[in-house]
Design brief:
about 45% helix; about 170 residues; single chain; mainly alpha; globular; 6 helices
Length: about 170
């Protein structure tokens, strides 16, 4: 990857933090003038915005979800681009995202589980052909009894694990 491409992707990463919540026109298309105004509020200079808008257009934006997940899909304006799309995933943004995702999920579980589910659903929505139904995923929290049964069942397949099914909670 050459330095110009790295610089362009860094600019897209920064642009993913822009407040792009109100960029959709009444016909459902992305209003690039609204995108430009949002980018002007986020990026350091008019020249950065001009450079980004000359090379990329926003195709879709997913505003903050309850998990803190947010993403922006950019498309190159170069018709001969070998990789015309870039999906920019915004990182931690704000106190809520820091507390809920970074500390609660990542520190506790090692993963931003809710954001992973939101990313999977977002990608599925983006790649589902028009006219077809999108089927989303959701995170299901297991009850203690279900976890115990799952561990007992899994224990049958782990050498040296002697937790018998008879000790698992009743169904």
């Amino acid at each position: 990857m050459d330095i110009n491409r790295v610089a362009s992707h860094a600019l897209l990463a920064d642009a993913s933090y822009a407040d792009l919540i109100d960029i959709t026109s009444e016909d459902g298309s992305v209003n690039q003038t609204r995108v430009k105004n949002a980018l002007l509020a986020r990026l350091d200079s008019q020249s950065q915005v001009d450079e980004l808008m000359a090379q990329w257009e926003v195709i879709h934006h997913q505003p903050d979800m309850d998990s803190g997940f947010s993403a922006t899909l950019f498309k190159s304006t170069d018709p001969s681009a070998t990789q015309p799309y870039v999906l920019a995933l915004r990182g931690t943004d704000g106190e809520q995202d820091l507390l809920v995702t970074d500390i609660s999920d990542i520190v506790h579980d090692g993963l931003a589980i809710d954001q992973i589910v939101d990313l999977k659903n977002y990608w599925s929505r983006l790649t589902t052909p028009r006219g077809q139904t999108f089927i989303g995923s959701e995170l299901v929290t297991l009850e203690d009894e279900t976890i115990g049964l799952a561990l007992a069942t899994a224990g049958q397949f782990v050498p040296g694990f002697n937790f018998s099914r008879s000790h698992a909670p009743a169904r």
